[in-house]
Amino acid sequence: MEFNRIITLLRKERGITQKQAAEDLGISQALLSHYEKGIRECGLEFVVRVADYYGVSCDYLLGRSADRNGMMLTADELPNPDSMKDGIYRGSVLPTMNKKLISNSLNILYAKIAACQDKGLVTEVSAYLMLAVYKVFRMLYSAELRNAASMFGVSKNVWSGYSDAAMRQAEANVQAILAGEDPTGSGSGLKDTALLAMTTESLSKEYPLYASSLLNLVKSSETRIEKLK
Q1: How far apart are CA 70 and CA 134, in angstroms?
Q2: How far apart are CA 38 and CA 2, in angstroms?
Q3: Considering only CA atoms, which of 181, 177, 173 is closest in space to residue 118?
Q4: Domain ranges (residues) in the chain
Q5: pTM score, whole prediction
Q6: CB-CB neighbours of 111 under 10 Å
Q7: What pLDDT, on the 0 to 100 scale, is given for residue 89?
Q8: At what angle do helices 18-25 and 29-37 cross, to 10 degrees?
Q9: Measured between alpha carbons, how far is 114 from 122 in angstroms, rounded to an integer?
Q10: First-to-last CA distance in the chain?
């Protein structure tokens, strides 16, 4: 299920036609087409051949690792943007790792946003993310009934729905700006989407410290999404 998606992705990222890839891999275009569509399964020998051809690991091809090199991440292997004192991680591994996955991914996200040089884009993306953090924090805070409700100015009866609406508005504004529109009248509107061109390979080269975190975040998120089907 992952293999067919990944070999198609790698080919398209390289800008190689299916015919050319099939010739290079020593199979017919029809057979490669079947592999890419998931109609047929290939043998281990072909998996190894594809791994060598694209310069990735077999674990990556099979969807076992989100990292092109097949690295399985642990909390200790992830760079820590917060530079924790004395390098000692406090608390259990799971929250530490998830925090670092998100923090490292945000470094790439904001680097890409900064390259666009659009203040409106920065504002709307930041609003969306801040609202998400606000929602989670308020849920945690409100779970303990002895915590003072007066900390928040928005009523407990409307805050959840209103924050959802504010997030959807920010999301819509981001989509509009990326499409070249100016939804807020602030002079925003992305003129050149080439600024956002990227591949898994380019991300790994441009952000060697953080790309694994982002790719693992994508994989974890899509695994959760797939469960909704």
Answers
A1: 35
A2: 9
A3: 177
A4: 2-61, 85-226
A5: 0.78
A6: 12
A7: 43
A8: 110
A9: 8
A10: 15
Residues near 78 by beta carbon (within 8 Å), at least 6 away in sequence? 97, 100, 101, 104, 212, 213
Enclosing H/E stretch for 187: none
Helices (H), the chain: 2-14, 18-25, 29-37, 44-54, 58-61, 93-116, 119-143, 159-178, 200-206, 211-226
Per-10-residue mean pLDDT of the chain, 229 residues long, equals 88 93 94 93 92 91 82 60 48 74 95 95 97 96 92 94 97 97 93 92 92 91 89
pLDDT score recorded for residue 210 = 93
Q: What is the rounded radius of gyration, in angstroms, for the C-alpha atoms of the chain? A: 22
User: How far apart (Å, rounded) are the C-alpha atoms in residues 97 and 112?
Assistant: 23
Asked if residue 131 lies in contact with residue 170, where contact means CB atoms within 8 angstroms, the answer is yes
Dihedral sign of CA atoms 84, 85, 89, 95 in order: negative
pLDDT value for 80: 65
Topology classification of domain 2-61: 434 Repressor (Amino-terminal Domain) (1.10.260)
- What letter represents residue 66's amino acid? A
- 5: tokens are 């998606």
